[in-house]
Amino acid sequence: MKSDILDCSIGRRTFLKAAGAGLGTVFGCKLLFKKDLVEKVLAQTNPTLAIFQLGTCAGCQVSLADFGMDMSTGTSNPTFADVLSSFEIVYHPLLADKLEEDFLASTQVDICVVEGIAGDTVVATELLEHARNISTLLITMGDCASYGGVPGLNAAKNLLNLYPVDQYVMSDGTLLQVDIKIPGCPPQPEHIVYVLTAGAMGEAILDGQVCDACIYDSGGARANELGEPGCKRDLGCKGDPTGPDRTTRICATSRSTGGVSPCTACDDVCLGCYEEVFPSTPFYEL
Amino acid sequence: MATVEINPITRIEGDGRLILDVYTDANGKLRVTNLLQETDDGTFTTIDDATRYPKYCVSEFRGFEKFVEGEQPETVTKLVPRICGVCPVPHSMASAMAIEDAYGFAIPSNAKAIRRFILALHTIHSHLLHLFLLGGRDYLNHDVIAIELPNIINAHNKVQTCVAMLGGRPVHSASIMPGGQTKVPSLDELTTIKNYIQSVHDYVFVTLYPTIKDALLALPNDFGIRPANYMSSGIPFYTGLSTSYTYDGSSGGVILNGAYDPATFDINTANIVPFDQANIAEHEITPYGSTVDFLGYYSYSKRPYYVYNGVNWICEVGPLARLAVAYRAGDITVRTYVDNYAADFGLTANDILAPTTRNRYIARLIETDILLDKVLGEWADAIDPTADAYIPPTPADGSGIGVIEAPQGTLIHTIDIVAGVTSAYNCIVPTTINSGAIEEAMVDNLVEIRPETEALLTTDEASALAAGDNALKYLLGDACRTVRGFDPCCSCSSHLIILNGGINSIKVVKFL
Q1: Looking at chain B from residue 472 to 491, which residues have their Cβ under 8 Å from any Cβ of chain A?
Q2: Which residues are A89's β-sheet partners?
Q3: Cβ-based neighbour number of residue B504 at 10 Å
Q4: How confident is the model at residue B312 (pLDDT cuts 50, 70, 90)?
Q5: How many contacts does A have with B, using Cβ atoms within 8 A?
Q6: B401: how many CB neighbours lie within 10 A of its CB?
Q7: Given Cys at both, which of A252, B203, B432, B489 links A213, Cβ 3.0 to 4.6 Å?
Q8: Tens-place pLDDT, residues B94-103
Q9: How far is it, in rounded angstroms, from Cα B38 to Cα B44?
Q10: Which residue of B has its CA nearest to A262?
Q11: Which distant-in-sequence residues (6+ apart) come within 8 Å of B134 by Cβ?
Q12: What's the pLDDT at B504?
């Protein structure tokens, strides 16, 4: 499998160098990417970072904390600690003791990462305007913040008023501008870190289908039931190369998923969680 | 009335805040006021949400129970883990179990063995995350955490790798389905998992153990105290009191012992009754879909309680409750481990199983040890790498319930299936059950950082505190440490149901 991982424990200087070299190839597929903004961020000697959550399961942040996990060796190097040491954390309620008032008092942050869905029943939605105004780069992490994800079913069913971050209306009447969207429910650790470090660590999301990294051949024998070896396309697998919801991004990474599509490797189906339409239900044809 | 709002409370999962009424104690320090008043018989308090203090506020709500209606049951098993990314595994399992119950379907015994194994691994991950990253800063020296961080993350990730070997990935794993487990680990994979887990065990319980033990024993034991009312289903880890609902464990039990008095508390004679999930009722704080105002409708969490003999008891769930119930019910493993730890700590089982913040950490540590040993031994050996673990169930309409112990406590999913789709769904989640207990436990706690805690700070943090850093001042105070001791999950706890006119009748809850 193709990948351009730079998986060594690195210092700040190497980070900047590697990040600079990687700029041209950062983020494939449909991520919004603004090269000039990333360059501006990297010009800082110690980028400031804020990570906060809206309506979310916090799974993206757990995935981020899992960074380094390696299916083939079980040993993590580099880790999330190496990623964090590249930044000055200004706000991150999950791990750092800072109050919201500290965040509201800050006037500039280089990178702001938002996890979770926004809306009426999510109080932290009120932070979005400030977050956008003070951030050079605003990144949505995971499907909920980027596209709506699982709680996005509320909109489809006309229940709670919940919506992805880029549908938040700023006080001037414009929609909030998101600079980079990271797909996945959750995104693999390498994919998050690749974006945060502008390619210095982690791995890029590759264009293609989940089938491309599946342990089964999509043209080969098909399984009749879950738990059985073989292609799961008859059971609802979103990796189906001919299906209406077929995948366009490869979720597999070389380390945290061992280079293979993780869900089909367990003889379950792919739910298509890296796609903007996720969740496209029902998941199963049983 | 002086109030302190701590927003957000950090190092917990999800988004929440505390609104505390405070008073000044004899030493000039702020403490948490309890505005709940005892009634004439000395045992009951009217719970009025507008005037209730202290307030533990969950500030986000996504409405899972409502939006899964109309969905295929198997699809729901894959939607509801998104309630919580820290404990997606038990949510998947509770959902699968509820659907299997509704279908009237018995899964293969190998699937039960695999589920217990995965859940144990997952619980170890969650406990390590809490003991070192989320709750760690509340009792461990911050310099130690900084030095050990790469090793801590490495150990944590090893466990996550084991979960991924059984479910593809650690967060929102595949393989847990109504009908069983789609993945059976090979003998090689089980050997690899045991090797990884052995190294995690050695790191935590050999290398770090002296540091952890000293830190826990140095943690003051005079806060986070609440009545000794504990609830645990025990499923699927521990034996319990009766067999009204069994999976691969027991039905656990509920200790209803009332106000905690160190002089008289005796776990061996504590009042215990059978656990029956049908006795759990729920008080809804914010009506469905409305916005919180932090005064009246102050939280999106429900506040469940256990109804026994007509009395409504607020119970605590989690590792401490699990160990207390299993110890009282006579689980041999738990009794041995708790007694051994008590001896090593120079304490008694009664000291360790008392409802305090310190003990919630000690219990989490002991349970981690138990689960590591079980995973290295009999729970791995119970898996047959050559046998099937999944049989496609025959769908059927009906109602079902799944009960399981998540890392943070008892988790219950219920489903109604009509015409093959989900017609009703409800989740009773550990942190909702704990929301009343958390509020009780904060009463009279110091709001500000206490002098003993300042010894944990780094030099830079001590300077920041001296310069007036409010975040350190409040977030390292005892009230916040008490909340964190429960390992609460706001993501999990934001669950509401629409009650049919019953809300106003639920006003009386046991508060001793």
Answers
A1: 472, 474-476, 491
A2: A49
A3: 7
A4: confident
A5: 263
A6: 18
A7: A252
A8: 999 999 999 9
A9: 6
A10: B168
A11: A94, A95, B11, B12, B13, B484, B487
A12: 30
How many CA atoms, within 13 angstroms, populate the side-chain half-sphere of residue A266? 27
Among the residue ranges A70-84, A188-202, B106-120, B244-258, the one predicted with the least confidence is: B244-258
The pTM for the full model equals 0.93
Angle between helices B319-329 and B332-345 (to 10 degrees): 110
The one-letter amino acid code at A227 reads G
The pair of structure tokens assigned to B276 is 């029956």
pLDDT at site A41? 67
Residue A78 preceded by cis peptide, ω within 30: yes
- Determine the Cα–Cα distance for residues B41 and B236; give it in Å rounded to an integer: 39
- Per-residue model confidence (pLDDT) at position A241: 86
Instruction: Look at B79 and A77 and tell me if their CB atoms are within 8 Å.
Output: no
| Distance of alpha carbon B60 from alpha carbon B494, whole angstroms | 6
**Hey, how many other C-beta atoms are within 10 angstroms of the C-beta on B300?**
32
Closest residue by Cα to residue B16 from B475, B500, B511: B475
- Tell me what pLDDT residue A211 has: 95
pLDDT (mean) for B121-134: 96
> Is residue A26 a contact partner of residue A6, using CB atoms and an 8 Å limit?
no
B401 touches chain A (CB under 8 A): no
β pairing state of A180-182 and A135-141? parallel
Among residues A184, A214, A163, A166, which one has the least CA distance to residue A274?
Answer: A184
Closest among A241, A266, A137 to A197, alpha carbons compared: A137
Cα–Cα distance measured from residue B321 to residue B230, given in angstroms and rounded to the nearest whole number: 5
- Calculate helix-pair angle for B357-376, B332-345, nearest 10 degrees: 120
Which residue matches tokens 């040890």?
B369
**Tokens coding B239:** 């034996």
∠ CA A110-A200-A103 to the nearest 5 degrees?
20
**Other Cβ atoms closer than 10 A to B240:** 29
pLDDT beyond 50 at B120: yes
pLDDT bucket at A34, cuts 50 / 70 / 90: low
Residue type present at position A134: I
Residue showing tokens 């390292």: B476
Cα-Cα-Cα-Cα torsion B286, B290, B291, B295, nearest 10 degrees, comes to: -40
Report residue B427 as tokens.
């989740």
CA A81 to CA B201: how far, in whole Å? Answer: 21
pLDDT digits (tens, 9 = 90+) for B212-231: 999 999 999 999 999 999 99
Mean pLDDT of chain B: 90
CA distance B228 to B238: 20
- How far is it, in rounded angstroms, from Cα A224 to Cα B512? 58
| Residue (of B354, B328, B336) closest to B242 by Cα position | B328
Determine the distance from the C-alpha atom of residue B392 to the mean position of all C-alpha atoms in its chain, rounded to a whole number: 32
A99 and B13 within 8 Å at the Cβ level: the answer is no
The residue to which tokens 């499923």 are assigned: B235
pLDDT-based confidence at residue A12 (cuts at 50, 70, 90): very low
- B125 close to B88: Cβ distance less than 8 angstroms: no
CA distance B68 to B75: 9
Average the pLDDT over A3-31 and give the result: 35
Tokens encoding B498: 């629409």
Euclidean distance between CA atoms A162 and A173, whole angstroms: 18
* Chain B contact present for A75, CB below 8 A: yes
Find the closest chain A residue to B138 by CA distance: A97
- Per the rule left: phi > 0, alpha: psi between -120 and 50, beta: everything else, B250 is beta
> Tokens 């065990």 — which residue?
B201
Does the structure's ipTM exceed the value 0.90? yes
Which residue carries 């379907």 as its tokens?
Answer: B105
What domains can be seen in chain A, in order of their start residue?
A: 12-196 (3.40.50.700), 208-286 (4.10.480.10)
Rounded CA-CA distance A76/B274 in Å is 44
The verdict on a CB contact (< 8 Å) between B157 and A159 is no
